[in-house]
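Posted in: Structural Biology > Protein-Ligand Complexes

Title: Requesting predicted complex, beta-D-fructofuranose in pocket

I'd be grateful if someone could produce the 3D structure tokens for the following input. Sequence and ligand are given below.
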Amino acid sequence: MQKHTLKFIILGVALSLISCGNQATNRATAQKISIEITENHLNLPVSQQAERGKMSFSIGENIDRTFVIRLAETPEYWVAANVSAYKGKTLKIAFEGDAAGLSKIYQSEQPEGAENFYLEENRPQLHFTTKIGWINDPNGLIFYEGEYHLFYQHNPFEREWENMTWGHAVSADLVHWTELGDALFPDKLGAMFSGTAVIDYENTSGFGTKENPPFVVFYTADHPDRETQCLAYSLDKGRTFTKYAGNPVIDSKEKWNSHDTRDPKVFWYAPGKQWVLVVNERDGHSIYNSANLKDWTYQSHVDGFWECPELFELAIDNSPANKLWVMYGASGTYFLGKFDGKTFTPLTGKLQFEFGAVYAAQTFNNIPASDGRRIQIGWDRVEQPGMRFKGQMSLPTELTLRTTPNGVRLFANPVKELDLLNDKLVVSEKNLSPDKANELLKPYANEAALRIKATVKISHATFWALALSGQNIIDYNLNFNTLNGVFYSQNDFAGMEVNAEIFIDKTTFQVFFDNGGISYCIERRPDPNNTEGFRFWSDRDFEIKNLEVFTMKNRWK
Ligand code: FRU
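-- Reply #1 --
Done. Output follows.
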């Protein structure tokens, strides 16, 4: 059915010429249409071939939202704006650019193509993805009143980066997520860049009450002139937010002589009875303190990081008496050190616990003490070819500190909730030759999602690898001590055994190696002409001591 016949009323089409110096081209004019909003969504036709132009939504004389969009008369795909807040009102849409696509805009209860959400060909089945548009960093990860909140960098209007907005999803189990729609929209201070969330139980900010403590999010407002730190609060469990009138709360461009001051992470530091904010400024992470979340005092700086700071304390080998602090940045390299509420002192050089496509990972705030886990989610920088969404969140992992022969190291392992996605244990065998293992794996080569656990013993080889359709998932070299080209020396060589856990999804392989001592994500690039399926291979002898394979449920079903 041609959905454009759905009821929509264009009240008036006005051509207003906005003079732009001498450049009186088509792009310098703003075309306007008005629509009386009666449905929840406005469907907008876009194409990657079209140039971006500025669109604004106004009610009366007030501009409510401004964004850029590749509006196209012949859509490559559709995006949708939630316009439920405008119901019963007349929305004026102005567009500076090739306006031929304006006539195709129409409203409907559900976004165009909603019946196909999560059934798309290249929709990851285990990982969180957004329905429409681009996503990058996870933001504001927090557990509150039975819900895990995942906010994320979202461009609702294209499958590429732009218009940074905070998307929002919630989950009761870290595995099944429900998208709630966008939470924070760009404003005059800038686009909504990455940040954090806290619950202000003592109502130190005064935004709520102790009975209904404010749910406070911090974000960076990215403006061409400067990046500043801002906050917004919610009194309804993150469903709606009010931006603080006193924003920004930190403006440090001049101090650092840098535009790059961003991505605040905030937490309560109980021993000092104060809030701590860690933010990347110029060439490293700065630490600030506050008593009320609004007034911040600079304390110290740790050089050697870029973007997306994290700072948290972990017990070593599960022993609460023995703890260290972990500081990392967007790339997943980290220091272990001491922290006194004001200054972080590294006790190690830079170490690495994850690599590959994962970036900008954050950990959850406010996990109950009875649980006590440090749970991380990152952004997997991968494509889903041909889809109107792009990017996925990494599978949630539990971070731990363990003693190794190299000293204390950070480990990442899949959270236990991921077992909820196990469907059937289809292989469970011991002491296999590579040929036998490959034969057992053969029927599962084309599964959209699969979980494999393997322990491999090298008896006489310099490397072993596991490939799918000719693409190496694991390539482990004991001569050069590399794992997929990255230096890695396994923690214990006794017996020459090492284990790996692999989550295969539609467009990625996520691998936890050597008990989680190192993990990585790589894009899955199926070669339709390669029919060899899974292949354990090597230059000489090796043995698969243990092999378990699970088929997986589709999280969206
Ligand atoms: C990291 C990052 C952050 C920034 C955000 C913008 O991927 O560059 O530093 O806040 O993405 O989308």
